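quick one before i forget lol
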Amino acid sequence: MQPGDIDAMTQTPEPQIAIVTGASRGLGFALAEALAPRFHVVAVGRTTGGLEDLDDRIKARGGSATLAPMDITKADAMAQLCRSIHDRWGGAALWVHTAVHAAPLAPASHMAPKDFDKSVSTNVSAMGHLVPYMAALLGTEGQALFFDDPHAGERFYGHYGSTKAAQIALARSWAAETVKTGPDVKVLTPRPMNTTTRMRFHPGEDKDALATPYAEAARLLAEAGLD
């Protein structure tokens, strides 16, 4: 054995990286926490307090996270983050995308332009830079997860239903294009959950009848082969 072999044997291996966009609350928060024992989580979200709470929970489980309080619609900021991930770790094994804007329910003829613009920007336009950036990090061996919430064509869901459907359509296209080459792109469908987004749409709903984000995170990760 050469002297350098001992150093090589004692070095801590680089962690696998999971990027969770929309990690500061709801399903994204629960998924990031559930992934922490197996991955170093890069948690992206706009709510700093939520990300700090997530960091505390991940550390309590013996995991580690890098917090990235930023807006996914800012292409330059996301480019800088992805470049930093590449330079530090060489890439990522997993991208989990839960970030979404849920505008208030409204008739199509009464949608506020600012709400529609934000829905398009967050739910659709951001995909135009996120997918190319993340694809470069994931390479051929990585995995990307998206989460459908089908409301297209329903009454009063003009903002959310149309833009979420467009997001998932793009994800399905990417999945079809990469079947033979990778990365492995999956679209999963969560059950109705007790989340802030759900409560905005159904304020009087019985919360006890809904799944918890933690239960759904465990179920969805198992479905994706990540349990």
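fyi The chain has one domain: 15-190.
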